[in-house]
Amino acid sequence: MGAVLDARVYRAAFLPAFFLLFVAAFALENRPAPAVTTFAPEGFDAARAFGEGNTPPRNSLRELASAFPRRAPASSGDRLLADRVAEELARDGRFEVSRQRAPADTAKGEVTLETVIGVRPGLSNRRIVVVAHRDAAGSPATAELSATATLLELARIAERREVRKTLVLVSTSGGSVGGAGARAWAQDAGDPQLVDGVLVLGDLASRETHRPWVVPWSNDERPAPHDLRRTVERAARAEVGTDPGSARALVQWVRRALPLTYSEQGELVAAGFPAVLLQASGERGPDPDNPISRESFDAFGRTALRALTALDERVVAGEDRGGAESNSPYSRETDGIVTFRKVLPTWAVRLLLLGMLLPAVLAALDACMREQRSGRHPWRRLAWAAAGATAFLAAWAWARILDLTGLLDAPRAAAAPGSIPIDGAAVAAMLTTVAVAVVGWFALRRLIARVTGVGPWAGDGTAAAAVSVLIVALCAVLLWTNPYAGALLVPAAHLWPLAMAERPPRWARLLLIFAGLALPVAALGVYGWSLRMAPLELAWMWFLSAAGGAVEFGSAVAVCLFTGALCSAVVIARDRPRSSHTSQPAITRGPISYAGPGSLGGTDSALRR
After folding, report:
1. Lower CB count within 10 Å: N or C terminus of the chain?
2. Which residues pair with 133 in a beta bridge?
3. Is the dihedral of CA 123, 126, 132, 134 positive or negative?
4. Which residue in 412, 419, 537 sits closest to 141, CA to CA?
5. What pLDDT is recorded for position 186?
């Protein structure tokens, strides 16, 4: 890449992006309306459910905390609490109670988790689901236990009144170490299209609260539906008396670009269920010793009841004609980013970003064509450029082997902070994984280059053109599959070809490469800020997610290709000699004033006299 694409052609390639920007502006849509209710949730008896007095009532929060102080997944305390929940749901015969046992991979190894399911039939077979996990990684974890106390209070309320839709109460285990119980229930729960909403109850009693209280994020690209989230937020605003908080457009973008959460609604949304988490301590959740408050428990318990009542009263198209219509109310709901109280659809985001990538595509293709005309073979260099990813794929495979062989206990989904401590074994696992990546970079990459017949780069522009094509192709694929993730790579697709050119000095090349990393690094920073995680905690969570299989193979390949392209670009930018060529690059003008090399120029007769 001795010379880049003609600057005027490069600038002109941005014109479609400006046009698509206007398309995106006119594509903004109204947010779906939340479900509302006129029912005042006075039926939530916070005094009894909380357990005031010297002798707390049976199944109240304080009584449960005293009876079950330790509730590790699949422990005796967890099983005894499951018996208590099943007994309470079956007490008056209004709920049809069943129990489901399934093996699960958690942070404590392979265990058998038990799920208690209570079904209260309604006038319609459309369902509203409430999920609460019983277990806790620490002790006494009274704030976490407030979800089970609220679940039992909602069951008592449902016994005294008619429900329009079928109410399903689910008590799971494994929620503190990866959501394994919720995932097991989702696999046997039937058609998600019949579910109008899933309310996942978390900590509802912490004295100190953190917003947002309504968490819609998923372990898949698409989060919970906007109107379900707004329904629960409206209920929280009415009962708590303040704004429940919501993610800004930047946070929404990052959470969809890197979809990962450790709360149970993430597994349910990924399985196709419309689900949100209601939690007073925010997405991170409470510490085991968090103090509790009767006022918080009252406000958030009433929020849960109000939200469920609104979902129960909401009429679904086609329901009155047969009661079994399987069209989800969210099946045609607008998907996108909420900004300026509007929704920017995903299709508009994808078109806009593809338009912004077009100049980088032209630059990469132009570089390859010029190298091809010079007698070199840039397409063969793609094997050299892609070989750098094999080192990081080997590191990812090593992390998976550590988990599969039992040397590392990593859950299948992300685990909450503190549930898996960062001890000496954890540090050793991360260091050995880094060592595999380093050894693979210096050994495996060279072996693959030798087998494919493409040796180390020779200092010309062929390798730079190949790396440019690799990063542009990866960015284009991501923009098509997940435009929010692809957007993080757009600056690199524009800046890295310039960083690998001959003209800039070495310090400028390296600066351009690190500038291309600005968005991915900022995305990780936003993740840590929204989850209130230190950098080491964040790195540990992502390492466990990769080792446990929460990061899918396609996502792992994309990350490894990007990292390999980054390392190759650094090598080229650092070692490529700077050109001393001072002549003006070829330019493209009109047919009269054109002069220069090419199909029309480069001869004496073509030069202006």
Report:
1. C
2. 172
3. positive
4. 419
5. 94
pLDDT value at residue 419 = 78
* φ and ψ of 180, to 5 deg: -65, -35
Burial label, 125 (beta-carbon count in 10 A; 0-12, 13-18, 19+) = middle
Distance in Å from the first CA to the final CA of the chain: 31
pLDDT of 454 reads 59
Q: What is the pLDDT of residue 177?
A: 81
Ordered DSSP codes for 429-455: HHHHHHHHHHHIIIIIHHHHHHHTT--
Name the helix (H) or strand (E) containing 50: helix 46-50
Do residues 82 and 187 both lie within one domain? yes
108/174 Cα distance (integer angstroms)? 10
Domain shared by 302 and 405, yes or no: no
Q: What values do phi and psi take at 63, rounded to 5?
A: -70, -40
Per-residue pLDDT tens digits for 426-447 = 889 999 999 999 998 888 777 7
Residues β-bridged to residue 102: 113
pLDDT digits (tens, 9 = 90+) for 36-72: 887 777 789 999 999 987 788 999 999 999 999 999 9
Residue 115 contacts residue 181 (beta carbons within 8 Å): yes
> In the numeric block, which tokens belong to residue 60?
């109240």
Give CA–CA dist 485/258, Å, rounded.
Answer: 7
Tell whether 304 is covered by a domain.
yes
> Do residues 311 and 384 share a domain?
no
Q: Which amino acid is at 474?
A: L
**CATH number of 136's domain:** 3.40.630.10
Please write the tens of the pLDDT for every residue from 115-143: 999 999 999 989 999 999 999 988 899 99
Distance CA 133, CA 182 (A): 8
Query: Measuring CA to CA, which residue among 157, 152, 132 is closest to residue 144?
Result: 132
Count of structural domains, the chain = 2
Average pLDDT value over all residues in the chain:
86
3-state secondary structure of 117: strand
What is the radius of gyration, based on Cα positions, of the chain? Answer: 29
The Cα 122–Cα 168 span in angstroms is 10
Q: Are residues 288 and 406 in the same domain?
A: no
User: What SS3 class is residue 99?
Assistant: strand
Q: Does residue 522 lie in a domain region?
A: yes
Model pTM score: 0.88
Domain span at residue 83?
Answer: 31-315
